[in-house]
Amino acid sequence: MFDVHKIREDFPILKREVNGKPLVYFDNAATSQTPQVVIDTIVDYYSNYNANIHRGVHTLSQEATDAYEVARKKVQQHFNAKHSHEIILTSGTTHSINIIATGFTHFLAEGDEIIVSALEHHSNIVPWQMLCDRTGAVLKVIPMNEEGELLMDVYDTLLSDKTKLVFTNHISNALGTINPIEEIIEKAHSVGAAVLIDGAQSCPHVKPDVQALDVDFYVASAHKLCGPTGVGMLYGKSEWLEKLPPYQGGGEMIEQVTFEKTTYAGLPHKFEAGTPNICGGIAFGAALDYMNAIGFDNIAAYEKELLDYGTKKLLEIEGLKIYGTSQNKTSVISFNLENIHPYDVGTIVDKLGIAVRTGHHCAQPIMDFYKIPGTVRASFSFYNTKEEIDALVEAVKRAKMMLS
Ligand code: C6P
């Protein structure tokens, strides 16, 4: 039974006030809040078994190593990777994408093509532009329509035997659109291209199955799904990860080091140079346990209710326009009030205790498409309520009255 009021008890931060009002946290697409069980995991680690991993024979080091590797297994199971060594624990989505973009320097030549979608976060644009600068490869873009959906017929025309790599997000952070990644992957594979899916925004809402998707790389951040910041994952098919060179050199990623030559460790350690975010990795595992116990089907069904309710209520405000109106979207509502800057709206609703994100959401090309400086973005999570949406609607009306 999904009981939002019971779930809210798990999140200590939801009890606080902001500017004398109960906090309404609608910035979940930026980062999610942390349940007590994840906070307890972090406290337990630093209170009882804080040690470096894979290095010591002493008890604390072994306990920390075991817990870290258990967490890797949880990530493997959650994403249904075939092997745990296909899961690289990174500092987050941005780090994961940079590992692949840097590695592909060795596989691209002048004139090769790589394809990105128009709906990307800067993290899934800039590393590939840097890759093009290094290799002479050409970046092509799948355009979008007014609803915030990709033009898949144009995608068909962009694919050719020159295409080496396709990368898109699973769900857009700025608009909430769910992209047809199954079709994107299948078509890319038909011309021999590899695919990277940025799952930063999908993982809080759905449970991806990387084997069923047959995707080459899938990346995500723990902090979007109730885990801590500074930790995330990179899934890569073994055959790709074996071929790709290490991203960073240092401790832990080696097999043998002499001044003449170094040989590298096997997977996953080849991509995990230096002391990782040990506590973060273990807490990532605890966050996945927490979300799986609630159940992703329950989460998706409830968030759909919030999305439908919020969309209807916000659209009752005259002069309010929603950006991203695909039928296939998650609980993100990006909007503007006519002739009012999103920053001003965000500032007023914050005074009323409501946290939304304003600006370009690290997705400037989307804002350029709509010819706007940014939007107000309310992103709902499974611990939000319809009463909180009512509070947002009243706050936006108030902002409109004050700013018009
Ligand atoms: N989007 C948002 O407010 P990191 O910072 O590495 O954990 O995630 C980057 C990232 C990559 N791809 C997508 C689709 C994302 O949404 C994000 C993070 C946040 O929308 C913070 S900018």
Structure, described:
The protein contains 14 helices and 17 strands. It is of the alpha/beta class and 404 residues long. The strands form 5 sheets. A 7-stranded mixed beta sheet has the order 4-10-9-8-7-5-6, with helices on both faces. Strands 13-14-17-16 form a 4-stranded antiparallel beta sheet, covered by helices on one side. Strand 8, helix 8 and strand 9 (217-221) form a beta-alpha-beta unit. It starts with a helix and ends with a helix. The mean pLDDT is 98. It binds ligand C6P. Residues 29-30, 92-94, 121, 123-124, 169, 173, 198, 200-201, 221, 357, 361-362 line the site of ligand C6P.
For this entry, give a set of tags.
404 residues; four-stranded antiparallel β-sheet; binds ligand C6P; 40% helix; globular; 17% strand; alpha/beta
Provide the residue-averaged pLDDT: 98
Number of E-type strands: 17
Unreliable stretches, pLDDT < 50, 5 or more residues?
none
Largest sheet composition: 7 strands, mixed
| First-to-last CA distance | 44 Å
> Oligomeric status of the shown chains?
single chain
- Main structural class: alpha/beta
Helix content: 25-40%
% residues in beta strands: 15-25%
The small-molecule ligands in this entry are: ligand C6P
The helix count comes to: 14
Principal-axes shape call? globular
CA radius of gyration is 22 Å
Give the strand line-up of the largest sheet: 4-10-9-8-7-5-6
